[in-house]
Write a structure and sequence with these properties.
Length: about 350
């Protein structure tokens, strides 16, 4: 396997032929065989020399997709935990845990204490019953004293009202002074501060926000332009490979070269370009933070974090589903590759 992967055809022939008669059908723990190692490394002479073998396809697929499968399982576990938190744990906390620990258990402990101290509690109830007539008498005396004080209270209240009435002109005068002060000093100062704040927004904050937004747009246009140009180059390269294969009747270009070119084209269209676009869109989060900070300062940053938390809650499950779909796509691509190898082991 080492000689096949490094491209040493003489050593491969030496080991494969008598007296050594090496077994090229041995399958490594990761599913690799000598033929696949030589084909992956691009050693066509060794591929043509070795016999066709189809062993180890599933092991290679499993080894190649071990990380993708683990990522997919982790994403599904996180989705399950997220759904369980909002569907089960959170309602259980408010509907079951809080009433249980705030109402039910304290009430049960109180009833248990009352039962354990029922003798003392009974004596206390007897004492309260015997003391109730005395308390009623004391309450009646208190009410009587209160009724006797009503005329005095009315007289004192009248005096206080008269004092307040005498202070009304003075209060009106003070209120007029405060209104005059507010109209001549406070209000102009507020208007000046608001005008300065608006001037700062128009002359400083909005231009800074426009600069940040323009930089983000320019970076997106340049990155998308590079990605689109890369797609055009991959299309031209793939067409050139097909034309060479037709013209030379597959003498200089193999089916594997055509397949690799097709895979590069699909990768550029469905992976590189969407990834570039998505990275540009994700960059808008940082740009929006800078814009809100430039326009409204700390208040804008607080609003941004609130909307970011809401966005995280809404997009958490779709983001994890995207991880699952991406892992599945990677696994399917590797599975198709192994299927083509099964049909043509020399590929």
């Amino acid at each position: 396997m080492l000689a096949a992967s490094t491209g040493s055809l003489p050593i491969v022939k030496l080991l494969f032929e008598p007296p050594y008669c090496a077994n090229d059908a041995l399958v490594a723990p990761d599913g690799q065989i000598a033929l696949r190692l030589a084909s992956t490394a691009g050693h066509r002479a060794i591929v043509d020399y070795l016999p066709s073998r189809r062993a180890g396809g599933f092991r290679r697929w499993r080894t190649h997709n071990a990380i993708a499968i683990a990522r997919m399982k982790a994403a599904l576990r996180l989705i399950g935990s997220f759904i369980r938190f909002f569907i089960w744990d959170l309602p259980k906390f408010f509907v079951w845990s809080i009433p249980k620990h705030v109402v039910v258990l304290p009430l049960a402990r109180f009833c248990k204490w009352c039962w354990a101290n029922r003798k003392i509690f009974g004596c206390w109830c007897k004492h309260q019953i015997t003391e109730m007539p005395k308390r009623v008498v004391r309450a009646g005396k208190w009410v009587g004293r209160g009724v006797q004080k009503i005329p005095k209270v009315i007289k004192e209240t009248g005096k206080q009202v008269w004092k307040v009435v005498k202070k009304v002109p003075k209060a009106i005068k003070e209120t007029g002074k405060e209104l005059w002060k507010f109209g001549t000093q406070t209000l102009p100062r507020w208007i000046k501060n608001i005008a300065l704040w608006l001037w700062d927004i128009i002359t400083v904050r909005i231009p800074n926000a426009i600069v940040v937004l323009a930089k983000w747009i320019w970076s997106g246009i340049s990155s998308l332009g590079k990605a689109a140009w890369d797609v055009i180059r991959k299309v031209a390269s793939f067409l050139n490979t097909i034309l060479q294969a037709i013209v030379t009747f597959l003498r200089n270009v193999t089916l594997k070269d055509i397949w690799n070119g097709f895979c590069d084209l699909l990768r550029a269209i469905f992976i590189t370009l969407p990834r570039t676009l998505w990275s540009w869109i994700r960059r808008f989060g940082e740009v929006s933070y800078e814009i809100m900070s430039a326009l409204f300062g700390c208040f804008g940053e607080l609003l941004w974090w609130i909307f970011y938390a809401l966005k995280w809650v809404v997009l958490y499950i779709p983001s994890k589903l995207w991880v699952v779909l991406r892992s599945l796509a990677s696994s399917l691509a590797k599975g198709l590759s192994e299927l083509m190898v099964w049909f043509n082991p020399k590929l």
